[in-house]
Amino acid sequence: MGDDTRLSLIYSSLASNLIWRADYKPAAEYAERALALADKLGDLPIQVQARFQLGRHGYAVGDYRRGVGQCEKNIAALLGDLLYDRQVGVHLPSMTARLVASLCLAELGDFSDAIKHGEEAVRIADAGNPIDRVVWWRWMGQTLLAKGDVGRVLPLLERAVAICDEIRTPTYVPGTYCLFAHALVLSGRSADAMRFFAEGIESAVAHGNLFGHSLFLVWQSQAHAITGDFAGSGRLADEALVLARRRGEAGNEAYALHAQGDSAGAGERPEIEAAEQRYRESATLARALGMRPLVAHCHLGLGKLYRRTGKREQAREHLTTATTMYREMGMTYWLEKAEAERELAG
């Protein structure tokens, strides 16, 4: 019919739905088409939505710098009265742009700007509806948890879980429940976390809401390793790796490789060569993607592995690198763990 306005909106909606399904290649193509038409028409609301989908896409496939770039264009375009204009979509676009930028920056280890964007988003979310606040609690919680601010995260996620329990929408349950479970694990409450992992992942699979699914399996793998279920941990890490590679989620692939390293290197009879290989593969991919926190985690994993196997010099080398990186990024929670390991290494 030649109705480019509605066509661009349809393209943007298709991109959104495909991202939820973790079908990223056609999602990016539709988002690019939507943006091209919106640019031609000068249609700001659809430009904003298309850029948001491209930002989410960048986060999902591990192209974090591209994700930040798309979101920052929206942040610059939505100032003044437009901060609280919903434009097209369910949530305040000025809020979601800041939150996706925050997630991407956290993966890159730029926690200062990540938290600044998140704090700006909460001021916007407070003027919105309860669902806006659920999105803020969940995504800001993930940024803070990446940094290691476990104590600050739990109260936020408890509120988000309470709202999800009330509204029971499958859009928000998987990510909120699994992130809450991950926070419980890091706070030493692994047993409490298992129910939330099970319900969150079950909801994701049942409703086809697969955005972040492979990362949820990584978190669940880590929980099983902490509780001593190394076979279950390895199985979940393997599944996460297969899914991440199939879906083109490079960042989650790097996390899954790291989880495989943790699983192989744990227990009374660690598979030393397999663990070492997985940590190194994870670190190589993480460096290529700019994922500085994950690179530091790989050094910590290698340091722990070498300390356990009596290779003290190699252990000290990797643990020194890990402590240096954690200190530079302000990751105090992880810095303390690396320093404790370095003391044990002598």
What distinguishing features does this structure have?
346 residues; mainly alpha; Serine Threonine Protein Phosphatase 5, Tetratricopeptide repeat; elongated
Tell me, briefly, the overall form.
Answer: elongated
Query: How much helicity do the residues have?
Result: over 70%
User: The CATH topology of the domain at 1-146 is what?
Assistant: Serine Threonine Protein Phosphatase 5, Tetratricopeptide repeat
Beta strand count? 0
Our estimate of the beta-strand percent is: under 5%
Order of helices and strands: HHHHHHHHHHHHHHHHH
Intertermini distance: 74 Å
- The name of the CATH architecture of the domain at 1-146 is Alpha Horseshoe
Radius of gyration: 20 Å
Pairing-aware structural class of the strands and helices?
mainly alpha
Low-confidence stretches: none
Helices, by number, come to 17
**What is the CATH superfamily classification of the domain at 1-146?**
Tetratricopeptide repeat domain
**Average predicted local confidence, pLDDT:** 94
Describe the structure in your own words.
The protein has 346 residues and is mostly helical. Among the domains are: 1-146, Serine Threonine Protein Phosphatase 5, Tetratricopeptide repeat (Alpha Horseshoe); 148-210. The protein is built from 17 helices and no strands. The protein has helices at 4-20, 24-41, 44-61, 64-77, 93-108, 111-125, 130-147, 150-167, 173-186, 190-207, 213-226, 230-247, 250-264, 272-289, 292-308, 312-329, 332-345. The radius of gyration is 20 Å and the shape is elongated. The model has no long low-confidence stretch (mean pLDDT 94).
